[in-house]
C-alpha cells in the first residue's frame, strides 16, 4: 500500500535543508511534486535570472527570497516576483548599490504580508525610503537597515553638505518608519551614524511590541538614549551595542538594567565596562541567556565571576579578548557553565589545552567552542579526559602551537564533530587532519587553509558527509585532489585558492566525481588553464560559481554562455 502524500511530506520535512530535496526529486514525479511544494526559500543570483520565471512556478510555497551576488535590475526582478502570487513573508535585498524603491512598491501592490525585510549594506538609503517601506509593508515585524553604503557624501574639506545630508538616514526617517510599523519587533540600526537618541524615542513610543534593537556604531546615540529606550520598551528582550563607557559610564545607564525585566540577550562588544556595571546586571535578576562582552576592557575576573554566579542558566557566552583569563580562572568559572551551548574565548592568549579539554568535560550541553588565537598546543592535557558527543563545532584557527597530538585527542573527545576550523595552524600536519577525519565521520565542514604543515591530503577512506573544504594555500597535488573527489561524494564547496601544485587533471577528478559541487575557487591556481572551464560547466550542471585563476578573463560571450548554463564565472 502506498503512503499518502501527507506522510511523505512529514518525512521529508525532517531534512535539515532544501538541498537534500534534489536527489529525492529525481526518484519519481511524485517525489518531485512533493519536494517542490515543501521548498520554502530561494536564493537569486546572476545565473538564476534566466530560469527565474520557471522557478517561481515550480516552487509555489516560497516564503523567503534572498538576493546574493546579483548584479541585474533588482526593480524588474521584484516586479516579476510580485506577479507570482507567492506567500512571501521574508525578503533580503542587502548589499546592493541602489535601494529598489520601484520594485518594492510593485511588490507591495500584490504582496502586503511581508514580515521581514533586510536592506543592510545597501547604497543610497535615505529617509524617504524608510517612509516608503513603512507605507508599503505595514505588517513588517523585522527590519534590518544596518550599515548603509553612502559612498562619497562629504565635501572636499571633509564636512557633510546639506545636499548629502538629505541622502542619509536621520531621526526623521526612523520616526516615519516607526509610525507605520506598529507590529515591529526587531530592528537593526547599526552603522547609521547620523541618528540620535530621538530615533530610540520614536521606536519606543510607537512600537509597543519591540523586542530587539541593534545600535552598533551609532555615534550620536548616547547612554542616556539607550537607558531611556530600555526603560520605556517593556518587552525588550535583546539589545546589541558597542562603544559604551567612552569616556565613562553614566549613572542613568547603570540604573537602567533594573527596568529591563524581559532582557534575555545583552551585547556590549568593544566597550569600556566596569565590574560595577557587571554587578548591577547581575543584581537586576534578568532572564539572561546570552551575554556578549567581546573585546571589552576594564572589567576583571571578580566582576565576571559575580555576574556568572547569578546566571547559571546562560546558554551563550562571548568573552573574546578577555586577556586576564587563564586556565585556572576558567576552571573556576566553569562551575556556572552547566547550560552553555556556545562559548567564545578567542584572543584569550593565556588559555591552553587544559581549558579546551576541561570545557569539553565539564560542559555537557556545549556544542560550539571558539578558541582562535589563544595558546592551544601548550601544556599537558587534563588528567581526566571525558568524551563529549554534544560538541559539533571547533573553531581553533591561528594557533601556531596546535599540533597533531591535540587533533587526535580532540577527535577522541568529540566523536560527533561536524565543523573543524584550524586555519593558519602551522603545527598541524596531514597526519593530525586524517586522524580527525577517520574518527569523526559526521564532519561536513573542514577548514585547513594556510596550514603549512599539511603537505598533502590523500584519502583512502570515505567522507560521506563532507560538504565544504577550505584548503587555500596548501601543497596538495593532483593525486590528493583526485582522492578527495572520489571519497567526498557530497562535496558542494571547494576552495583551492593558492594551491600551486594543482593542474587541470586534479580539477577533472573532482568535477567527474562530486555530483553536488556548487562552488570552486581556483584563484592563483595558475597551473590550471582557463580552457577547462567550459568543460567544467557542461560536465557538472550543479556548478553555480567558479573563481578563475588570476589573469584569466572570460570574454563577454563566454560569460553569457556560462550564465545560460546557470554558473557565475568570476575573474580571479
TrEMBL record:
Q: Where is the F-box domain?
A: 1-52
The protein in question is named F-box domain-containing protein
Give the record's GO biological process terms: SCF-dependent proteasomal ubiquitin-dependent protein catabolic process
Under InterPro entries, the record lists: F-box_dom, FBXL15_LRR, Leu-rich_rpt_Cys-con_subtyp, LRR_dom_sf
- Where would one find coiled-coil regions in this protein? none
**Might you report a single GO cellular component term?**
SCF ubiquitin ligase complex
Which organism is the protein's source?
Gossypium lobatum
Amino acid at each position: 500500500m502506498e503512503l499518502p502524500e501527507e506522510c511523505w511530506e512529514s518525512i521529508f520535512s525532517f531534512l535539515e535543508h532544501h538541498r537534500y530535496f534534489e536527489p529525492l526529486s529525481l526518484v519519481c514525479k511524485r517525489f518531485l511534486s512533493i519536494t517542490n511544494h515543501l521548498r520554502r526559500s530561494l536564493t537569486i543570483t546572476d545565473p538564476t535570472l534566466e530560469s527565474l520565471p520557471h522557478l517561481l512556478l515550480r516552487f509555489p510555497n516560497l516564503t523567503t527570497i534572498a538576493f546574493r551576488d546579483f548584479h541585474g535590475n533588482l526593480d524588474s526582478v521584484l516586479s516579476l516576483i510580485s506577479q507570482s502570487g507567492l506567500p512571501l513573508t521574508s525578503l533580503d535585498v542587502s548589499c546592493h548599490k541602489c535601494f529598489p524603491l520601484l520594485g518594492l512598491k510593485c511588490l507591495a501592490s500584490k504582496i502586503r504580508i511581508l514580515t521581514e525585510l533586510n536592506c543592510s549594506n545597501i547604497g543610497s538609503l535615505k529617509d524617504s525610503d524608510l517612509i516608503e517601506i513603512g507605507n508599503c509593508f505595514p505588517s513588517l515585524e523585522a527590519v534590518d537597515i544596518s550599515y548603509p553604503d553612502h559612498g562619497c557624501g562629504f565635501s572636499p574639506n571633509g564636512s557633510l553638505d546639506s545636499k548629502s545630508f538629505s541622502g542619509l538616514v536621520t531621526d526623521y526617517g526612523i520616526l516615519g518608519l516607526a509610525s507605520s510599523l506598529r507590529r515591529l519587533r526587531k530592528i537593526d540600526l547599526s552603522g547609521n551614524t547620523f541618528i540620535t537618541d530621538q530615533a530610540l524615542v520614536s521606536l519606543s513610543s510607537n512600537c509597543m511590541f519591540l523586542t530587539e534593537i541593534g545600535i552598533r556604531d551609532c555615534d550620536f546615540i548616547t547612554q542616556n538614549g539607550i537607558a531611556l529606550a530600555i526603560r520605556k520598551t517593556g518587552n525588550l528582550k535583546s539589545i546589541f551595542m558597542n562603544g559604551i563607557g567612552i569616556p565613562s559610564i553614566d549613572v542613568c545607564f547603570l540604573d537602567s538594567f533594573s527596568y529591563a525585566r524581559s532582557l534575555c540577550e545583552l551585547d556590549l562588544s568593544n566597550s569600556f565596562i566596569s565590574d560595577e556595571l557587571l554587578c548591577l546586571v547581575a543584581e537586576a535578576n534578568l532572564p539572561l541567556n546570552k551575554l556578549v562582552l567581546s573585546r571589552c576592557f576594564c572589567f576583571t575576573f571578580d566582576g565576571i565571576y559575580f555576574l556568572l554566579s547569578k546566571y547559571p542558566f546562560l546558554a551563550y557566552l562571548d568573552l573574546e579578548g578577555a586577556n586576564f583569563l587563564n586556565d585556572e580562572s576558567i576552571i573556576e568559572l566553569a562551575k556556572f557553565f552547566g547550560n552553555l551551548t556556545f562559548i567564545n574565548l578567542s584572543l584569550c592568549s593565556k588559555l591552553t589545552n587544559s581549558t579546551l579539554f576541561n570545557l569539553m568535560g565539564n560542559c555537557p550541553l556545549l556544542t560550539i567552542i571558539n578558541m582562535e588565537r589563544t595558546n592551544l598546543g601548550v601544556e599537558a592535557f587534563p588528567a581526566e579526559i571525558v568524551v563529549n558527543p554534544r560538541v559539533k563545532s571547533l573553531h581553533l584557527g591561528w594557533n601556531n602551537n596546535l599540533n597533531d597530538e591535540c587533533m587526535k585527542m580532540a577527535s577522541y573527545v568529540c566523536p560527533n564533530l561536524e565543523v573543524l576550523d584550524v586555519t593558519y595552524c602551522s603545527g598541524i600536519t596531514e597526519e593530525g587532519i586524517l586522524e580527525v577525519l577517520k574518527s569523526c565521520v559526521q564532519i561536513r565542514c573542514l577548514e585547513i587553509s594556510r596550514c603549512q604543515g599539511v603537505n598533502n591530503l590523500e584519502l583512502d577512506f570515505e567522507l560521506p558527509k563532507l560538504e565544504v573544504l577550505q584548503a587555500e594555500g596548501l601543497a596538495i597535488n593532483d593525486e590528493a585532489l583526485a582522492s578527495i573527489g572520489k571519497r567526498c561524494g557530497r562535496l558542494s564547496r571547494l576552495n583551492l585558492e593558492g594551491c600551486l601544485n594543482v593542474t587541470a587533471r586534479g580539477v577533472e577528478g573532482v568535477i567527474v566525481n562530486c555530483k553536488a559541487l556548487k562552488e570552486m575557487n581556483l584563484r592563483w591556481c595558475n597551473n590550471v588553464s582557463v580552457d577547462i572551464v567550459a568543460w567544467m560547466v557542461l560536465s557538472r550542471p550543479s556548478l553555480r560559481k567558479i573563481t578563475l585563476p588570476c589573469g584569466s578573463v572570460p570574454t563577454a560571450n563566454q560569460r553569457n554562455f556560462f550564465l545560460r548554463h546557470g554558473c557565475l564565472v568570476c575573474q580571479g
